[in-house]
């Protein structure tokens, strides 16, 4: 039996235990929980211009600062709360991204009301199925797709910001809307079978 060290895994995980755990337990697994989907879209927005390693290392702080990614609560944040977030060294203190999180929470709540769930809305961009890219090389991994282009356009029209096509594609990877585990990775087959 292979030890955890010998398991074939996507190389982007590096040696950070938080990255390895995220890869092994979350990334690419089809996700249908609205709160978690909101968390992923917010964290991917904060990642813009930064590394995922930076975000994953601050994830617990984000969770605490943003009320466990409760969109209903975040939609009601006032200037006092926003100023508190701007002074929170545990998160990325970017005013535009923090304001976008509040704006996105409001838009998220509207989508939930219209569609019954964010899950039902967001999965329409892949026809309710995971797109299997069957990649063998990290260099061939796309950074966007026609689906992420469509998602980005529609989210922006519905009031979201920091949701360019590249951010949407990263979100799709995280939420299992695309299977971009490399085909030698131990998670590839498990995600494909889901």
**What is the architecture at the second tier of CATH?**
Orthogonal Bundle
Report how far the terminal alpha carbons are from each other: 24 Å
- Main sheet makeup: 2 strands, parallel
Total number of domains: 1
Number of strands: 2
Biggest sheet, strands in spatial order? 1-2
What does it look like?
The chain is mainly α and 194 residues long. The chain has a single domain, classed as Endonuclease III, domain 1. The protein is built from 10 helices and 2 strands, in the order H-H-H-H-H-H-H-E-H-H-E-H. Strands 1-2 form a two-stranded parallel ribbon. Mean pLDDT is 94; it is low at 1-5.
SSE layout:
Elements: H1 17-25, H2 34-47, H3 52-65, H4 71-74, H5 79-86, H6 95-115, H7 118-122, E1 131-132, H8 146-157, H9 165-174, E2 178-179, H10 186-193
Parallel strand pairs: 1-2
Short structural summary:
The chain is an all-alpha fold and 194 residues long. The chain contains 10 helices and 2 strands. The protein has helices spanning 17-25, 34-47, 52-65, 71-74, 79-86, 95-115, 118-122, 146-157, 165-174, 186-193, and strands spanning 131-132, 178-179.
Q: What distinguishing features does this structure have?
A:
194 residues; mainly alpha; 2 strands; globular; Endonuclease III, domain 1; two-stranded parallel ribbon
């Amino acid at each position: 039996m292979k030890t955890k060290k010998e398991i074939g895994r996507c190389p982007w995980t590096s040696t950070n235990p938080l990255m390895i755990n995220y890869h092994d337990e979350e990334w690419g697994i089809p996700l249908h929980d609205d709160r978690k989907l909101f968390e992923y879209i917010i964290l991917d927005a904060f990642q813009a211009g930064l590394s995922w390693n930076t975000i994953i290392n601050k994830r617990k702080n984000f969770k605490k600062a943003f009320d466990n990614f409760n969109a209903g609560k975040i939609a009601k944040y006032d200037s006092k709360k926003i100023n508190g977030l701007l002074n929170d060294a545990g998160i990325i203190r970017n005013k535009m991204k923090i304001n976008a999180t509040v704006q996105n929470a409001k838009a998220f709540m509207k989508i939930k009301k219209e569609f019954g769930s964010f899950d039902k809305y967001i999965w329409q961009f892949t026809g309710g199925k995971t797109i299997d890219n069957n990649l063998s090389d990290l260099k061939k991994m796309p950074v966007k797709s026609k689906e992420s282009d469509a998602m980005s356009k529609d989210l922006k029209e519905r009031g979201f910001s920091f949701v360019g096509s590249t951010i949407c594609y990263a979100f799709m990877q995280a939420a299992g809307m695309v299977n971009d585990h490399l085909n030698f990775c131990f998670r590839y087959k498990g995600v494909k079978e889901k």
